[in-house]
Amino acid sequence: MPVSVHPPALVISGLAKSYDRPVITGLDLTVNAGEFYALLGPNGAGKTTILRMVAGLLQPDAGTIAVFGTDTARDPLAARRVTAWVSDEPMVYDRLTPLEYLEFVAGLWQIPAGDARRRARDLIEWLGLSQHADAFCGGLSKGMLQKVALAGALVHDPRLIILDEPLTGLDAGSARQVKDVLIEKVRGGVTVIMTTHILEVAERMAERIGVVSRGRLVAEGTLAELRARIGRGNTSLEEIFLDLVAASPETAAA
Ligand SMILES: Nc1ncnc2c1ncn2[C@@H]1O[C@H](COP(=O)(O)OP(=O)(O)OP(=O)(O)O)[C@@H](O)[C@H]1O
Predict the structure, then answer these.
(1) Which of 24, 39, 47 to mutate to test the pocket of ligand 1 (most atoms within 8 A of CB)?
(2) Closest CA to ligand 1's atom 28
(3) What is the ipTM of this complex?
(4) What DSSP string runs through 35-66?
């Protein structure tokens, strides 16, 4: 099948994954290029499992995932080259400074040393880490490490950024910096998909919102579309979210 000139950033079809029981059960999801998309859902709904499969860290049992038209099973490296994955558990090397860590990651992507140093310095400044650029990561707070991990994920200039709960544990200032970086990226044409339990963040930042319940997408749309779907005007996202999850057949079956 020929690949379209402007494929969506992400197309998931019929995705399924079981652990000791089915967790993702036939998920279809499309995110357009350049979109800011928020994935919401109750604890255990399967959001992290979905994103880990998109990032190539977990093998689906069934279904396909295409990133900018590239099937992640057929050409995982090409898909990873354009994707950034930011886990909710930042993992960086304790005995490296943020600057060294970013240069190391850039090296893995075979970015020339001079270029790597420039990108690393820019990201460190952008995320307000300049004061800590030369301290060992092992001595940084969790919030700072989250920002270092985010910088590490951005160093190869990905076109799709996938983040799992990127704002949890960040103070107001750091959360602002991370939000600004993501908004700036979307303005530059990058696609951002993130999970969040902070509904206000989804409401303010995301162009479209997907609600996952028990491994399925139970609703999707702009805030206005979700409001219209539950038939109530001027309702908060929190109320919409609770209504949608409660009304989903998966919840009713449970
Ligand atoms: N490695 C694993 N082995 C067995 N079960 C798992 C594993 N990882 C996740 N699960 C189960 O899969 C389900 C979905 O988990 P997942 O972490 O994807 O949900 P989530 O929507 O990201 O939840 P949260 O909002 O709490 O982070 C949960 O019931 C979880 O216990």
Answers:
(1) 47
(2) 44
(3) 0.97
(4) -EEEEE--TTSSHHHHHHHHTTSS--SEEEEE
